[in-house]
Every structure is written in structure tokens, then in C-alpha cells.
Description:
8 helices, about 0% strand
Amino acid sequence: MKDLFSSYDKSNDFRLTLGIxxxxxxxxxxxxxxxxxxxxxxxxxxxxxxxxxxxxxxxDGKDIKENRPDEEIFRFDGGLDALGHIxxxxxxxxxxxxxxxSKFLFKAVxxxxxxSKLAAEEDFSxxxxxxxxxxxxxxxxxxxxxxxxxxxSAE
Length: 155
């Protein structure tokens, strides 16, 4: 499993690399040696993806949809969209917010400062997609409700 974690590092497809790295870390059937070091590597990778291929034009200045073939059926519009999918469909189902897997993902998003950069923006154009991208990402976050017995972690 540890070899699989870094086997696609040379790939330019962040959707693949995010999926592989987080899939290996979230595989509960595997006892990973040096899991903390792998989490740290994954957190750095997430931060890099969110700052260079976030899918939010206001962050990285790139339109992910540009020059993409129309026949590509299943797609994520940037690292933020791919990470939101992983968090809502896997993290929410298998891990509580106080578990190490959840904490490292929340910390990686926080460390990337993507949300802080957006909050510091003075004005967005009316046609920007940020008004749908950020609320969708926030809706995907596996945060427990106030009525749940589970506490919200500091991350």
C-alpha cells in the first residue's frame, strides 16, 4: 500500500493523485507503517493542488474547463471539487470528525489558505463561479450537527 501511495506522483492529473493518496490513507483494512508521514505528504499534496489547480479562477488564475474535451463525461472542476467529493462520499461515511483522518484533511484545507484568500477578496465579478463552488464545497464538509453527540474538532 505504501508503494501505491506514491506510484502516481509523476502524473499531472490531480484527480488521480488525490484519489490514490486519500484512498490509501482511508483504507481501514490496511495497517500502514509510517501513516503519520504519509498523512503529512498527503497534506502537502492537497495544499499544492488547492493552490495550483483548485478550479477557483480567483485563486490560481486558471480555468480548469478551458481546452477540456467535451466527451469527458465524469469530471471534477478542480482540486476543491475533487476533495469535496472525497470528503462527502467517503470521509462522512467512515470517519467521525475527531478521527485522525478527518483532522488531517481539515488541517490540509486550512493550511492551503484557499478559503482565507477568498475571504480577503474585495470583489468578485458577477459571472464568477465562486458563488457556487464555495457553498458546494462547504456543503460537502462532514461536520457534525450541533445536536449530535460528536464534538466539532478544532481543525
